[in-house]
Design a protein that fits this description.
The complex is a heterodimer of chains A (about 180) and B (about 180). By secondary structure, chain A is α+β, with helices and mostly antiparallel strands. Chain A has five helices and six strands; from the N terminus they run H-H-E-E-E-E-E-E-H-H-H. Chain B has about 180 residues and is of the alpha+beta class. In chain B, a hairpin with a 7-residue loop joins strand 4 and strand 5. In chain B, helix 1 crosses helix 2 and helix 2 packs across helix 5. Classes of the chains: A alpha+beta (about 180), B alpha+beta (about 180).
Chain lengths: ~180, ~180
Amino acid sequence: MTDALIEAVHRHVGEIARRHLGRDVAAADVTALLDFVDAVSHEPGDVIFRQNDPASAALFVVEGRLRASIRTAGQDRVIGDSAAGEVVGEAALFRRGGRRTVTLTVVERSTCLVLSRAVFVAAANNPALVALEVHLAHLCAERMVGRIALVRRAWEEAGGEHPVFTGALASLLGAQP
Amino acid sequence: MTADDAHRGAERLLSGQPATPADVDALATVLAGFPIENLAAGTTLPAGSPGVVVLVDGALRAARPGAGSAPRIVGAMHAPGVAGEVALLASGGATSVAWVADEPCRLFRIPSADFNALLGETAAGAARFRWIVLAALTQKLARMSDFLRAVVSGSRAASDSPLDVAHAILEGCEPPRA
């Protein structure tokens, strides 16, 4: 990793720790965490993984932008972008035999830290990893609440009509940024 | 609560994960700090109860308030399961569903402040507790994605209330079949 990327990791992890834990993380702890993780870089247009691929690791986005899409009824629908400081692909980290639920494509040149199950075990007590785990928990909760809001909005737009609801939900999913 | 209670609870909670005996021991030390509750079948935990429910034995039915009518059962959570953490993490709030014990249950209720404190600790037991929470969250997200995809693709007929299904998933319940 370049010095600029290492600095970016320190900055993101520090912001995350202050936001969720109300404290700083020592630079030495971030550096120690970097000894456990690999960094991968991708160019725009690269597909990092595809829906239904076997999954074994999450990605912490250090720089760039990634786009998640799902394929339903023969159509690819964009469901959201992830930028620096976000975690993606977390679904399989804590389950055996998990598979990717989305296809992840690079929009802007990106570098990510690979957070495998092995990292979560080996660095379990590292304060920088604790901050990332708590961040991931908050992200998951916010995504759940966001999906509930989508369902509620589609149901309201549909006036409780099931065929209309299906179309409204599809439209809202496709209209995600 | 006995050490055996905490250990058995930890074993149940980690049963779906590639956990070692040391992981179980570490999680048991955390659980031992909270009283275990035994619920008789039919006992209700009202909506709006703060904190996180960690179910280690039994099954709970989730009920959402109906508009001018009796609460609707929207699904059931079977042990091991975690509920209430989404609302707490997303907004600091409490779950919107009431829980009714479908059979004799054993559970831990972790107050909001303790939950938040545990999440940020570096001790081994806290790390394993985070795994439990993250496992529950990621499983719920995956189920929600599956549900949305199935509705949009037409492979799952919309139920009477898709919102009920979504809330059931959010609370860690098996969504009712359409």
